[in-house]
Design brief:
25 helices; about 45% helix; alpha/beta; 6-stranded parallel beta sheet
């Protein structure tokens, strides 16, 4: 039985190749040694998107002799990732790319040379982190720590407890991710104020700005208390030395699949246990992911960077990064996801891929994307919106090996409808040749969301709604509404311009959505029959 270790891939090359696994084409020991002496890239957030996408891109450079140092992975939140997934497997990952037809491509990712827990109690790891940041060779720190990782305040606008503690304690005992990185940047400042770039690769809008705000805010608080030199804030804000580029990332790397685990075992690859950490991270020595991937980065680096454009990553200007994100979030992916999420929950689906086999639901997202979205899409110029949309609908959403659920995607929909549907509506309002009242599938998606908020599926049975910060107030507007109710009123929801970013009644859509909602409320089966009626 093959085991994922450096010794095994060196000594059992033929067996790995026979199992259909692509092996690294570079000297691992030499690259590790180079990285130890002159680190160039550290990444915070040791999870699946990093292992399955970012590290694979760098591996392509190493394989082609276009890089000679690896990536150091650091974890600020879930240290079990390092202890259970990195160290026992010599920092290797078995990447399994899965296409919609069921084909698997397997590859060992070995571009990660070190796995470090950013924990002050681990003296060796702490010493190594400081050493990395004090080295002039360091070009960049990148991040996939989720949007929450950058947030210093709670819903009340006050600093989180952990952040208050960090502000009082200064750079010596940081706990929050932003404080940890700021304290390391301070070490670099003290050593020689060397240049470097901090790149957020998280799937959130204006990610680089969020990262900069987090670090600069912490630095200013420390400076105000005399815990760091005043020059440190100026260092972080000096774009000749430190930059925080924007980026747009898009790749689905879901939880480890038991189907993939069983297939690997059958091919003679052992010890591929699925691990759930005490912080509820689902992980494994392997990462299963879709083939499609996009990473667009603002090309604003102060101390050099890897030639990642040779691995398919796009470098461009800030405006184009914003346009790519707008294309994806307002037209070519996210609106379709939300429409499938709320309709799928109502119609009893638990997999997005299964919804794509439903002719009505497929037609629903095709109309939102092609007929109603593309006429007003923001075209970034470096990617074709139509080709992107084609890939989303034919390959990505339809892939049965990407176990993505409508229930997961329906989370926080109140925070998303304004961007995912409101932006298309606003574009129709702005254009003299288009009439927002002519839209059908977009208002139908909003009506479906309102019907979803009732928490009763199309068979008349109660179901659990996905978490949403506005759930209580939204459901309050539906108090007493039940199936068959002909006078139910959702005007209070539709009039909320904070939700939709537009006055739906003033542009002829409010009444249209109300009518669709009432039709969906007629009784069991009414959701499906209403969708079929309007999508003919």
């Amino acid at each position: 039985m093959l085991r994922l270790t450096r010794d095994s891939i060196r000594e059992e090359q033929e067996a790995w190749t026979a199992a259909g696994v692509e092996l690294p084409q570079f000297n691992l020991e030499q690259v590790a040694k180079n990285t130890e002496l002159r680190p160039e890239w550290i990444h915070f957030g040791a999870g699946n998107i990093f292992r399955g996408f970012v590290a694979n891109a760098h591996q392509k450079l190493l394989d082609n002799g276009r890089a000679d140092t690896g990536i150091i992975a650091a974890e600020t939140f879930d240290f079990e990732m390092i202890d259970k997934v990195y160290k026992p497997y010599d920092n290797l990952t078995l990447l399994v790319l899965m296409n919609a037809k069921g084909g698997f491509q397997k590859k060992i990712i070995s571009s990660i040379t070190e796995g470090i827990a950013a924990d002050k109690n681990r003296e060796e790891d702490d010493r190594r982190l400081k050493e990395i940041f004090e080295n002039p060779s360091l070009q960049m720190a990148s991040f996939t720590i989720t949007e929450k990782g950058y947030s210093l305040t709670g819903p009340d606008g006050q600093y989180l407890g952990i952040v208050k503690k960090d502000i009082e304690g200064g750079p010596e005992q940081p706990l929050h991710a932003m404080s940890i990185v700021s304290s390391l940047a301070y070490k670099r400042y003290l050593k020689g104020a060397y240049p470097m770039t901090f790149v957020s690769m998280d799937n959130c809008s204006h990610n680089g700005d969020k990262l900069k705000n987090g670090m600069v805010t912490i630095a200013k608080e420390w400076a105000a208390k005399g815990l760091v030199e005043d020059g440190f804030v100026s260092y972080l804000e000096n774009e000749q030395l430190i930059t925080f580029p924007l980026s747009m990332i898009d790749k689905i790397t879901p939880r480890p699949s038991e189907t993939v685990q069983a297939a690997l075992l059958e091919q003679g690859i052992g010890e591929m246990d699925i691990i759930v950490t005490s912080k509820n991270t689902y992980t494994a020595p392997f990462v299963n992911a879709e083939i499609s991937e996009y990473l667009v980065i603002e090309d604003k680096f102060t101390n050099g960077r890897p030639a990642l454009e040779e691995a398919g990553i796009i470098f461009t200007d800030r405006d184009t990064v914003n346009k790519v994100e707008t294309m994806k979030v307002t037209t070519c992916l996210n609106p379709l996801h939300t429409a499938l999420a709320v309709s799928g929950c109502l119609l009893g689906y638990t997999l997005i891929a299964d919804e794509m086999k439903d002719d009505t639901l497929r037609k629903f997202v095709e109309i939102i994307g092609y007929r109603e979205g593309l006429p007003v899409v923001v075209d970034p110029g470096i990617l074709s919106p139509k080709q992107f949309l084609d890939e989303v609908l034919t390959e990505r959403f339809a892939n049965p090996f990407i176990p993505d659920t409508p229930q997961r995607i329906a989370t926080d929909t109140s925070q998303k409808v304004g961007i995912r549907f409101g932006e298309t509506i606003k574009s129709y309002v702005r254009r003299e040749d288009l009439d927002p009242a002519s839209l059908t599938a977009v208002p139908l998606a909003i009506a479906t969301w309102c019907r979803y908020l009732l928490g009763v599926n199309d068979e008349g049975e109660a179901f659990t709604l996905s978490p949403d910060p506005l759930l209580e107030s939204l459901q309050g507007h539906l108090q007493g509404v039940s199936l068959g109710d002909k006078s139910a009123n959702i005007r209070a929801i539709l009039e909320d311009e904070q939700l939709f970013g537009v006055h739906l009644y003033g542009i002829g859509l409010g009444g249209k959505i109300e009518g669709m909602f009432l039709e969906m409320l007629a009784g069991p089966g009414a959701v499906r029959s209403t969708l079929e009626k309007y999508l003919k």
